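Quick one, tokens below. Sequence please?
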């Protein structure tokens, strides 16, 4: 039970959830994290080709059909392609159709989206005013929540066909999620927080070990790229870090084990300009290396041109509840 709670919090429960302390029965605050889940989603959309193959002739989809291929800047039209309907279903890593979502049974819909496809390796920038449904959309894409109508397919898997634990497993294997509120686990060390996804996913553990000698070394590599290499700092409890430092720990955790999809909910909101650049550079490098797809929400318009495409959520979300008043 404690494992499931920890997993949901760190890899995908509601962004506002708070873990007040260690799971019951864990005693001193150091929680045993020995149980490793089997790999029920093995092979679901995982691309075993090298990143070079993905970017050129090795791709089953001709580069000319890949729209804004990763690394290639799209033209203005394709960068602002709204719901992304130019992408074929076969190459879509994310394929969302006819989605209606409301938070409460009797409440209004807050998200109504006709179509959203995201291609493998694409870097999608999502912008929109506060309350327009950005975090709600990310939660649906990650299977944290499910729509009342419509379908969300990720890596070929219909998320609505899975139950809650099934979606948790799927997310743990395939999706790195940087939460708007970070969702760090306060009773785990920084390194334990960063390596946590590898406790829940064989896939991610194996991939992390391919990159570094062991999980802690891989965690330090990622943290080092985010200017968090100081051993004194790494020895501190996470709740004694600044907000910007916590945000970077959350980013390293999401990158751990090279998930196929990286979802980032305003991940640079607490970073200064220099660190913001370094952060986005790391995100791009790690995603390019692993062939990962990046879905990035931000209010920072200066970052938008770096991405392959922009989704302006307020323009495509047909939910009346999400429209700004007046
Ligand atoms: N857990 C929740 N329960 C009920 N309503 C919610 C919940 N989370 C969000 N909402 C509502 O859903 C709508 C969309 O919220 P959401 O958090 O997706 O917006 P956002 O675009 O991410 O905003 P911000 O830029 O402020 O993060 C808002 O009207 C919000 O009040
Ligand atoms: Mg939000």
């Amino acid at each position: 039970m404690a494992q499931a709670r920890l997993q949901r919090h760190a890899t995908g429960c509601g962004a506002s959830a708070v873990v007040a302390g260690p799971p019951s029965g864990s005693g001193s605050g150091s929680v045993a994290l020995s149980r490793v889940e089997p790999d029920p989603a093995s092979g679901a959309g995982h691309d075993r080709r090298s990143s070079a193959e993905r970017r050129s002739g090795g791709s089953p989809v001709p580069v000319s059909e890949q729209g804004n291929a990763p690394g290639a800047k799209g033209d203005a039209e394709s960068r602002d392609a709204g719901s992304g309907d130019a992408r074929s279903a076969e190459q879509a890593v994310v394929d969302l159709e006819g989605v209606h979502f409301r938070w409460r049974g009797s409440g209004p819909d807050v998200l109504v989206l006709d179509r959203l496809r995201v291609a493998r390796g694409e870097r999608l920038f999502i912008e929109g005013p506060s309350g327009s449904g950005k975090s709600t959309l990310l939660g649906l894409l990650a299977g944290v929540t499910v729509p009342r109508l419509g379908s969300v397919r990720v890596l070929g898997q219909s998320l609505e066909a899975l139950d809650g634990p099934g979606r948790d497993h799927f997310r743990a294997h395939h999706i790195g999620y940087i939460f708007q509120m970070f969702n760090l686990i306060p009773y785990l060390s920084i390194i334990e927080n960063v390596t946590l996804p590898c406790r829940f996913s064989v896939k991610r553990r194996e991939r992390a070990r391919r990159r570094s000698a062991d999980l802690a070394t891989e965690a330090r590599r990622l943290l080092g790229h985010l200017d968090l290499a100081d051993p004194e700092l790494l020895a501190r409890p996470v709740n004694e870090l600044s907000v910007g430092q916590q945000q970077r720990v959350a980013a390293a955790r999401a990158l751990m084990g090279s998930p196929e999809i990286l979802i980032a909910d305003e991940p640079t909101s607490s970073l200064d300009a220099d660190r913001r650049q370094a952060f986005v550079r790391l995100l791009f490098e790690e995603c390019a290396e692993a062939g990962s797809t990046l879905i990035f929400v931000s209010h920072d318009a200066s970052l938008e041109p770096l991405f392959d495409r922009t989704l302006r959520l307020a323009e495509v979300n047909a939910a009346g509840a999400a429209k700004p008043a007046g």
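The two ends are 47 Å apart (CA to CA). The pocket of adenosine-5'-triphosphate (ligand 1) is lined by residues 14, 16, 103, 110, 128, 130-136, 180 (CB under 6 Å).
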